[in-house]
Task: structure prediction
Amino acid sequence: MDVLPLRLKPFSPDRRKRSLALLTLVLPAALLFLGSCKKLPGPDSGFDMDALPLAMLSDYGLFDGPLVDLEPGEYLMPYTLNTPLFTDYAHKARHIYLPPGERMTYLGPEEIDFPVGTLIFKTFFYPDDFRTPEGPRRILETRVLAHHEDGWQAYGYRWNDAQTDAENKVTGKVVDVAWIDEAGANRSTNYIIPNVVECENCHQIGDPLQPLGPKPRNLNGTYSYPSGPANQLAYWAAEDWLEGAPDPSAVDALPLFADPASGSLDARARAYLDVNCAHCHRPEGDAENSGLYLNLENDNEGALGICKTPVAAGGGSGGLDYAIVPGQPDSSFLLYRMISTDLDEAMPELGRTIEHTQGVALIRDWIAALPGDPCD
Amino acid sequence: MQVFPISSLNTLGANGLSHLGRLSVLLFLGLVLLWSCKDDGPDAIPSNVWLISTSDDYQEKAQEALVNMESGDTLHFKQGTYSFNQQLSVSGKSGIVIRGEGRDNTILDFSGQVSGAQGILATDMTDVIFADLTVRDMPGDGIKAKDCDGISFFRVGAVYSGGPDANHGAYGLYPVTSNDVLVDDCYVTAASDAGIYVGQSEQVHVRNCFVEQNVAGIEIENCINSDVYGNRAERNTGGILVFDLPGLPVIKNGHTCRVFDNILDRNNTINFAPEGNIVGNVPEGTGIMLLSARDVEIFNNTITNCNIMGVGIVSFVALDSLGAATNTDPEFDEYVYNIHVHDNSFTRAPSDPFGGLFALTLSAVYSGFGIAPDIVWDGIINPDLPLSEQKICHHDNGGAQFADIDAANDFTDVVANPADNDCTIAALPVTALDAPALSYTVPPVFP
Result:
């Protein structure tokens, strides 16, 4: 399902050196031409960041063919994540744009440095029938993170009903969606397109905005490129999109939360909580005042929720005394809030209007298997 | 429905600006009016006012404004009822005003909301004002303001229709981890936790508000330097709470709060907080309750017909020993320090029943008094500190009864009016406040 047609420009192993050499050759020529044919900002020369957001998604000119096919052009790198954020079962197509000549830099298993001018696109869609995900589908929105000189900015593009293009909007919208799930059941919900302030609420880690998905440990998995399946980190390094990355075997990969072969129950549960909760539930996050920290790095049991009493939970504790009671998922309000769809109880606060049954099952199993005495 | 003369226009745009800024805005406005005064003068809308009316695509337009507003701008909802199905959110703005044309005239209704845990969420704001509107029937909280530096609510309502109900949102007006917070002349009813909740904030004034039929009318939680005055709290479970709770990261232990000139009447509503909620431990019939508080002065309040206690002074240790809550936070100080209750008036009909939750316990405890005592202290002291650092004092309360109920020892040694507590503490200073102000008290109305 994640095989997207792709035509990647065959970059040389060291674009920067080549660019330097090219520069010395072409500089005099370029100077001659300056004034007469100044190159317009665009995919092949980098965007004028001050002109963003462009009015329509098509204005970026980054996809080939009809926009609805989301076929990445030569300046886009598609990617996937081992454990993604749950967004009401929406499918997602992810693409990174780098200005020509620029590269990402590996800083560690949790962090990539993206050059100024980077654009990250995430498009949300529902296949009509999840059993044939490559079949007819409805695209709802494309979210864009743009890396400006002074930090990241979030933009939203709302797809039209004709599915020909998407328009930049700062506002959100509630959209009725329906699909047939993997088991053949008819499903529907009110899909929530967030407004840009809500984009910022999640992406604001500390003060500046940051990308949340593309971390090396979550990228350390296989993608099916036109040339065949390959490890994303290795492929990016080989294509000279990423520098400084060690061999993928040296980067702890985040497991696939629903694939027991990819990691232990504990590792998969912590991966799921990290991706779905820790953008807020971390010491620098929006939910810092709760004192519940679900980021992978947290190794404090109390902050992880074990025998932790509710803080400012309103009705969200569901009458339960502790976030997590080891061995007792049904006494743990962390699980209760993952299941609830009441607006003042449901977690995460944004992006989920229905229960994620696989995620809930995973956390239920994890709490049931947690060692330790029941609280009190 | 009153329509105000157009002359009130001249206050527009002046909000939150310096005198110089105000002058230049007025000058500019004057020029605009001069320029266009020929026939359409009265219809001129200042350019820094984002005007919303019920005939607009108002949800889209209002959220767009909240994203695009600049410093000094006003988002103005004309009178009418607006229905939203998504939360309104705003972040990182400075010096903006969000207002309507009166608490009873501009209603933002969230009963159809399908997204967001608040009606309005404002984060990381500087000098923001909410004024002259009501938010109604939110599935969650009403207006939450987080990490704000200077935030004022003037004449704002937060209403959960239908009276007390555990399914209502927790907090009506909810500033948290902010400083310079002013809540003035606001109205909140039927919130399932606290009508007006100010948490983990510094420099707080809550004044001239009317709160009724909430679990807690007003709650000051883990705050430093608060004044709560001139409010009327009626028919809540507890009228005004000053609480410190464990496990809060920004302010671990609050202190210094003055509660004065308030009217607390018939706060006997059965506690309807959702199960498991800390405020569920507030006994119905509570006028003012302090929990693990430090440096609180309670004076000049009129406390009438609050059936179980006029003023309750409780440490977290008591909740713990009653099995109501557990403290797992080593940095949290569970005790109560330096409480000064004076010059209040307590009135209650002797036949009034005790409240429900702790009624059995307390009626036995109170049996020696014939009537529930007015000021109730759990009698718990920090054994590691001298008594001089943890005084509980009362005087000049019109003959009010004071009870040390010895909660640490199963209420075995209840003492009425112990001599040690007939003492005084120096008055606390006025709480300094640097919150944004409005230049009018009657909201401008657009044609």
The interface with chain B takes residues 170-174, 190, 192, 195-198, 200-201, 283, 286, 288-289, 291, 302, 307-315, 317-321, 333, 342-344, 346, 349-350, 353, 376 of chain A (CB under 8 Å). Chain A has two domains: 15-250, 260-369.
